[in-house]
């Protein structure tokens, strides 16, 4: 899934082609940017972060990873025949007819009988 604003950066990275797609190039670039920052005390933390990013990119490049842009995919419409479900072939299970008659004769007039006594003490 594409993140917010990613399409703009992806179009910039596509322009430079294999130079930006390759993680070896990114690792070297991050390492080169980290060197000047190491000489100034105020930028040591940024230098450490760039150095760690350089190591991460280098390890990813060794494992064969590379950047690829997210291409928009056309949504495949499901065919009509796949969306229609087949109707059931067998009827739902029911108790035998004599059991259904007994249940109908024993059923209370008001419907369901609550087995727990309920009282209103207001």
From TrEMBL:
Membrane spanning residue stretches:
27-60
Recorded superkingdom: Eukaryota
Asked if Cell cycle is a keyword of the record, the answer is no
Xref: InterPro entries:
Cyt_b558_asu (IPR007732)
Q: Where is the composition biased (Basic and acidic residues)?
A: 73-88
GO terms assigned for molecular function: heme binding
**Where in or outside the cell is it found?**
Cell membrane
Chief subcellular location equals: membrane
Residues of the region (Disordered) are: 73-122
What keywords were assigned to this record?
A: Cell membrane, Membrane, Transmembrane, Transmembrane helix
- In the record, which residues are listed under signal peptide? none
Does the UniProt entry include the keyword Kinase? Answer: no
Question: One GO CC annotation, please?
Answer: plasma membrane
What protein family does this chain belong to?
Belongs to the p22phox family.
How does the record describe its quaternary structure? Component of the phagocyte NADPH oxidase core complex/cytochrome b558 complex, composed of CYBB (heavy chain (beta)) and CYBA (light chain (alpha)). Component of the phagocyte NADPH oxidase complex composed of an obligatory core heterodimer formed by the membrane proteins CYBA and CYBB and the cytosolic regulatory subunits NCF1/p47-phox, NCF2/p67-phox, NCF4/p40-phox and the small GTPase RAC1 or RAC2. Interacts with NCF1 (via SH3 domain). Interacts with SH3PXD2A. Interacts with DUOX1, DUOX2 and TPO. Interacts with NOX4; this interaction mediates superoxide generation.
Q: What is this protein called?
A: Cytochrome b-245 light chain
Q: Which organism is it from?
A: Hymenochirus boettgeri
